[in-house]
Amino acid sequence: MAQSYCDFAREHPLHQAYHDQEYGFPLTTDAALFERLALEINQAGLSWQTILKKKENFQRAFDGFDLDRVASYGSQEEERLLSDAGIIRNRLKVRAVIENARRLVVLREQHGSFANWLTLHHPLNKEQWVKLFKKNFVFTGGEIVNEFLMSTGYLPGAHQDSCPIYHQILTLNPPWYQQ
Q1: Which domains does the chain have, with CATH numbers?
Q2: Is-catalytic flag, 48?
């Protein structure tokens, strides 16, 4: 039987902090949701620990995940990011984050915020979410979409029922619990 993230995180300080304070907690601001999407995109093919170690660097490099600023990035900013050893220097991932910022700006204009757009489509099952994300964003495969939605409170499964954090998250009435 595979070890759950709840069990695994207890033994790793970096993971424990993320598990206890962020994973599965509902996010509502555009910057927080965009950051999580960007981090999930950058995690593809790598360990989550690598991303957690570089999280502050990502925040700095992408201007605090301010949608308007990242959406306005051009070739100079892209090259700056690709030369930044503090983040993942993968051209496809960097371009995906920038392009997704542009698309999120459009969604924000249409729906008021990324959270409003997510709420408008909630509840969907994982397969429906994946189709919706692939239609609206780039570099968003099934695992990225699943982890993004679980980690932000839109899909269940971030924590085991026996985990104390699970019960703490329930008090916050995450979208998946409102079904």
Answers
A1: 25-156 (1.10.340.30)
A2: yes
Cα–Cα distance, 124 to 179 (Å, whole number): 10
List of residues 6+ apart from 2 with CB closer than 8 A: none
Neighbours of 164 (CB within 10 A): 10
- Annotated catalytic residue, options 18, 23, 117, 129: 18
pLDDT for 5 equals: 95
Query: Is residue 18 annotated as a catalytic residue, yes or no?
Result: yes
Closest CA to 104 of 140, 70, 144: 70
**CB neighbour class for 94 (10 Å; exposed up to 12, middle 13-18, buried from 19):** buried
Of 74, 51, 53, 55, give the one whose Cα is nearest residue 65: 55
Instruction: Out of 23, 40, 147, 176, pick the active-site residue.
Output: 40
Amino acid, single-letter form, for residue 147: E
Closest CA to 90 of 131, 48, 134, 58: 58
Do the Cβ atoms of 62 and 95 come closer than 8 Å? Answer: no
Q: How far apart are CA 33 and CA 99, in angstroms?
A: 15
Q: If you compute the radius of gyration of the chain from its CA atoms, what whole number of angstroms results?
A: 16
Which of 1-10, 11-20, 41-50, 162-171 is the least confident region?
1-10
pLDDT of residue 179: 63
